[in-house]
Automatic annotation (TrEMBL):
InterPro entries associated with the record: cTAGE_MIA/OTOR, SH3-like_dom_sf, SH3_domain
Compartments where located: Endoplasmic reticulum membrane
Protein name: MIA2 protein
Organism of origin: Rhadina sibilatrix
Keyword Endoplasmic reticulum part of the UniProt annotation: yes
Keywords: Coiled coil, Endoplasmic reticulum, Glycoprotein, SH3 domain, Signal
Mode of membrane association: Single-pass membrane protein
Cellular component terms (Gene Ontology): endoplasmic reticulum exit site; endoplasmic reticulum membrane
Length: 127
């Protein structure tokens, strides 16, 4: 009985560690097309296949079109946020090329904790 309890505690610790990692704030700031980050900033095309490290990232194949909604700034400028069909997530800016800029000026705003949660089927996933 004690061994089963020890295994359950270990699984709980591992699960908690994964949860903390998956909600890690990637940057305190981001740039958007408007203060609410609802306006599309640009249309880009994937120049390489990309498979993200967790559910917060957007996976894509070379040639796919992505709409960019925000770009992390200051401490992590390499990650942009965008959508491809129903899928939404972060991706490295060097994996795409800009096809069309859709805004005149970028606005820098603070990120929110919810910016770094997984979104599945229109629901936030709290792990």
């Amino acid at each position: 009985m004690s061994r089963i309890l020890d295994q359950r505690i270990l699984l709980l610790v591992i699960s908690f560690s994964a949860s903390v990692q998956s909600t890690k704030v990637l940057s305190e700031w981001k740039k958007c097309g408007d203060p609410e980050c609802e306006k599309a900033m640009s249309r880009v095309q994937a120049t390489t296949d990309y498979l993200g490290p967790d559910c917060r990232y957007l996976n894509f194949k070379t040639g796919e079109e992505i709409i960019v909604y925000s770009k992390l700034s200051r401490e992590n400028e390499n990650l942009w946020t965008g959508s491809k069909g129903k899928d939404f997530g972060y991706f490295p800016r060097d994996a795409v090329k800009v096809e069309e800029v859709l805004i005149g000026e970028e606005v820098e705003v603070l990120t929110k904790e919810t910016d770094f949660l997984c979104l599945h089927e229109d629901k936030y996933t709290f792990e």
